[in-house]
Amino acid sequence: MISLHVAATALHYGQEAFEGLKVFTQKDGSVSAFRPDQNAQRLNSSARRLLMEEVPQDLFLEALTLLARDNSTYIPPYGTGASFYVRPLLIGTTPRIGVQPADEYDLYMLGMPVGPYYKDGFYPVQACIQDEFDRAAPHGVGNVKAGGNYAAGMMGDLYGKKRGYPISLYLDSASHQYIDEFGTSNFIGITDDATYVTPKSPSILPSITNVSLQTLAQDMGMRVEKRPVHLDELTRFREVGACGTAAVITPVYSIVYGDTTYTYGTPDTAGETLTKLYEELQGIQYGDREDPHQWMYRL
């Protein structure tokens, strides 16, 4: 339970930012978090944008370590495909009626075991382009992990799900000509010449998973392009995926936009490149493969 003043800035003016990361039991029995330093840095990026107090990285990592140790019995064992999800939360607690930032902030962390995202296999999904609603505006707060961003996207995501599409792809709100991101995940496109393409936009949340996959793609000899991606380029890709903490990669078989359907591969098989990237990153997280970039933080 949290005791919070009814006039706290988190409740009235949206001074709230959060993160999401996972803790894994690795093959050797150790327990490690995936790149938590990057989550600490991204939380502080959100804090700066929302005029909140930043959290010292050492404090963030100490809180994460205590959470994992105090809840060690809830961290799933190696071999189950499960992990321990951690949600850091930073909120403004000072009561304000006038619109101004808080003087005091609380940092919380909650944790819970989560099962394997793909219980029945690594299969593609169908997506639609959402142009009835916008997720975030240029120069707004789409590039930080503010809770209000997700509230703004709920209507559009529900709109797509009611029509049978598990995920929705959003366009830039200024022109509706460029790809931004999926509702809760970054966009990845793989071209015929094995180039990894992901959009660059001021309204996209920088995904730690995406950055990590880009590094792995370069390790595999692929070219990586982070740039504006026009709608017309959807015909260029041989594979498309959505990437984020929850699933690492969600392969996308088709994207529907009005009367047009763009397809990638087959409806029951993920593409070869995305599968390799997914297996490599999961292998590092679970300790099945080498960790050349020292991403795993032992708790």
The secondary structure category is alpha+beta
Tell me the distance between the termini. Answer: 26 Å
- The percent range for strand residues is 25-35%
Strand-and-helix sequence, N→C? HEEEHHEEEHEEEEHEEEEHE
**Sheet having the most strands:** 9 strands, mixed
What is the CATH architecture descriptor of the largest domain?
A: Alpha-Beta Barrel
CATH class of the largest domain: Alpha Beta
Mean pLDDT: 96
Structure description:
- This protein is of the alpha+beta class and 299 residues long.
- Strands 6, 7, 8, 9, 10, 11, 12, 13 and 14 form a nine-stranded mixed β-sheet that branches.
- It has two domains: 108 residues, D-amino Acid Aminotransferase, Chain A, domain 1 (2-Layer Sandwich), CATH 3.30.470.10; 162 residues, D-amino Acid Aminotransferase, subunit A, domain 2 (D-amino Acid Aminotransferase, Chain A, domain 2), CATH 3.20.10.10.
- It is built from six helices and 15 strands.
- Helix 5 packs across helix 6.
- 40% of the residues are buried.
- The protein is globular.
- Helices cover 25% and strands 29% of the residues.
Condensed summary:
The protein is α+β, with helices and mostly antiparallel strands and about 300 residues long. It has helices at about 10, 35-50, 55-70, 145-160, 210-220, 270-285; strands at about 15-20, 20-25, 30-35, 85-90, 105-115, 125-130, 165-170, 180, 185-190, 195-200, 225, 235-245, 250-255, 260-265, 295-299.
